């Protein structure tokens, strides 16, 4: 992959009527607060005494996906998602669709929180597409480009009980081949922006070589115009940089706002030669950053990459926030990005990134 290749994957998401010469791609990581009525609909569907069947639930899921996609559009996001309205949890959702997985009940993870941690009891396999219906529905309700987040194979392996394979790495590589198959199906349906989510890498950074090998499997045969990103949650990034630069992705989505960009300097030496999706709003607080605060955060990104390689995004998924706060964070984020673009056009913003 060349630097020109990165530019080519980005330009397709620029709106035809974009008002400025500069373009900062705005997007979100994936998850978004679910409407309260959707949670109630799921409860009704699980209640055998209620006449609320799967058809009713699917209608509710469609309505929620349509509503939240529209919220992203109204906020001005360039590459939208449906807020992952159909997904219950980032590992469980996929494990339920992969052959070889089984569920044996929830396990306690912290406090009073439980996670239905799956077990790999047999060889994993791909039966039918996981996300194609979701993607096709979302593209059917918006004219905006749609990004598809997929939980990565390393996280799927690391956050499961492995009862079949000799090692977690072997399981991860097998899962990576399945993710590659899923991306093929998504690309066939028109997807051009795929994000691999690997939050487990933040807690086990010494396994970056395994993640890199997984991404080699995932990227095999993917067309050059498909933008492939990697989201890594907050952690000690110095333990994975610069090694991650060798991974076959166009864009790294990093959670840097919540510690005030204390780790930003990590990515200045050696030069960060990929696109940076910079977290510019903190998803761990309901306090909504002002446009001016977000503009300052965006400009921090120019210390690492030039404007043509900066994507503007929240730190992580927004699902734990109040819905109103999540929306206003997106809205302010987009306004800040547009104002920074205007400032760049006018020569009012100095760009001094490490590669200059």
From TrEMBL:
Record has Glycoprotein as a keyword: no
Associated pathway: Amino-acid biosynthesis; L-methionine biosynthesis via de novo pathway
What note does UniProt attach to the cofactor annotation? Binds 1 zinc ion per subunit.
Q: Name one GO biological process term.
A: methylation
Q: Which Gene3D superfamilies match?
A: 3.20.20.210
Give the residues the record marks as binding Zn(2+).
231, 233, 255, 316
Q: Which family does it belong to?
A: Belongs to the archaeal MetE family.
The protein, known as: Methionine synthase
Tell me the organism. Natronomonas aquatica
Taxonomy, top ranks, is: Archaea, Methanobacteriati, Methanobacteriota, Stenosarchaea group, Halobacteria
